[in-house]
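PROTEIN SPECIFICATION:
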Amino acid sequence: MDLRSLFGFRKLDNLEAQHYRMAVIGLLVFIALMVVSGIITFSLVLQGEEQTLVPDIQDMELSSALVKLQEKELYPRVSLRFSDDPESKGRILEQDPLPGAIVKAGRRISLVVSRGAAQDRVGDYVGQNVDEVKVHLQTVFSSTRQLITIREPSIYVFDKAPAGMILEQTPPPETELSGPVQLVFVVSRGPEKPKVKVPDLTGLTLAAAVLQIEKSNIAFQFTQRPAEAREQPGTIVAQSPAPGSMEDAGTTVSIVYAAPAMQEGQVSGLFSQELPEYPYPLRVALFAEPPAGPRLPLITVEHSGQAFTLPYTVPEGTVLVLQVLNRVVARVEAGG
């Protein structure tokens, strides 16, 4: 064999081997670069976005708070709410997350911004009904501390204006609210009424006596006892002051009622409920709600409060309902 040929083949083999080694090394380097790149990418994914500290922006003006958030690459989500401080309008009441929390940049921060007080000035209440004004103020300040309250009791005077109408107020309308304010009202009792004639109720049935009471609009108070001697059960047997006497409006007429005879399926008694003393008479009504059938009115009168009493004879299981200005103040089962 020719030695050059032999050596030539060996030289070719060496070149192929060298190329093979270089290809392997290149492949290994490529794989290493891919691995390193994957590790770096994975690390960046784990690290996420840049983190930042939530600043304290509570009680700041909204414009200043937005600048603070922008500096931290944070974004606001704003909601509005009334406050009990008239001077807080436009300021941050609450924030979420709280100051000092670590969050990712770009996070939205929930802000509650004050709309100020629900009412920033004293209204003009002259000429309005005092009870309606009370309800109005409770409604206005239902979600915050009530900045406007009414001093109790108000000052009541006789006047030609309807009972309950506000005649004067202090402080005056349009007074700015810088804090809690207490209103002082001068309220009409209604025209001063002349003396009234006491009706004759003696001998009347309860139903007939109720009609006379509603018609004359006298103040009354019932007591009930068993019939004595020749007294007729279920009738009025005594009253004071005497029938026909002239009395000041609001003078209470004491009425004695002889209990009716017992009837099967019926229950009798004396309804009694203590009410507040009203500065002027309010419409008071007592109803009977029997187990079956419609609600039945027992009496409807203008009443000045304190003791409200009325005898009754109703089916067993009846519920007695007392209302003042259409608001239920008592529900009791008859005979209970």
